[in-house]
Amino acid sequence: MQAKGVQPKVTIIIKALNEERRIAACLQAAVSEAQSVQGEVLLVDSLSTDRTVEIAQGFPIRIVQFLHVGDRNCGSAVQLGFQYTQAPYLYVLDADMILQPGFLATALSHLCADSGLAGVAGKLLDSRLLTVYDQRRAEKAVALTVPIEVGELGGGGLYRREAIDQVGYLGNRWLRAYEEAELGMRLRAAGWRLLRLPTPAVMHEGHFETSVAMLARLWRNGRATAAGVLVRGALGKPWFVRALRSQAHALAVPAMHISSALIGWLLLLDNGSWLAGYAAVWLGWFVLLCARKRSLGGGSWTLLLWHYSAITLLLGLFIPLRDPLLPIAARELVYENLDHAIQQRDSADEPTEDRSHTVGE
Question: Is 19 exposed, middle or buried (0-12, 13-18, 19+ CB in 10 A)?
């Protein structure tokens, strides 16, 4: 924690909700990295009901909390952290991630050397690969061998506050997901660039669920509809085309249905059933997907995921838009006897039941 009156150079913003099992390891690494770059750690707690805050109070950090449960989600947690700091550089981190030693200094050196960079990220390494998404991310991490410019810093990264101030806000408080993608779109539309380094940045524990269970969870907590909110919010904005491209797989579904119906009707105009022609064309699409994925399961999963995405995109388009610049009601926790809290830190690290996979993690 910075001394009173000293402006930190970097603020590490950590999003947490019911992370008692993992918060100590996350904070220990974050505090160490912050100290190496004249920084601070700011924990954004989404009104946890477990011992997350109690454990966090054993570390030299700042803690802010939402006042209202209804305000918490991924985008608002990021924006709330932004409200509570004036540091010139901001690192966004999830509580199930552990910052790797030295990465913060490396990312900071790139931002200081290139005034056109708005943000820098590195490799996100997963320790558990149960979902298709985790597996794909792991494949991308292995393939990354040189620095590349990217459209977004998924998995967190270090941002230049000057760039964030120019585009208005760090996280759209109404986005339950895609907050990093939307930020990348706004930054690139304003002329800024984003860089991903082939350097390990964080270790991510991964999800304790299958791909199907993950889709069910995202449906229940409403995060699945964020794609529609993203596209609707981009309407009329310079990044609208980028928003549409990000949902190309979902937009492909209605296009495939319309083309299949048209082709089926043309092929069987004089004889046969239109429905049979329509089904035959869709069988062709399915065979192509299986060939591309090199497996029947891969093709089936892709087809399911595309339809899921199309439905949730449509539902999200009907969610009313609200101003992302509206301030978020919150409070900063002030706790005394910090030395005593630090002495209790080690006893707070015992494993407990994992209840972290909820909205706002």
Answer: buried
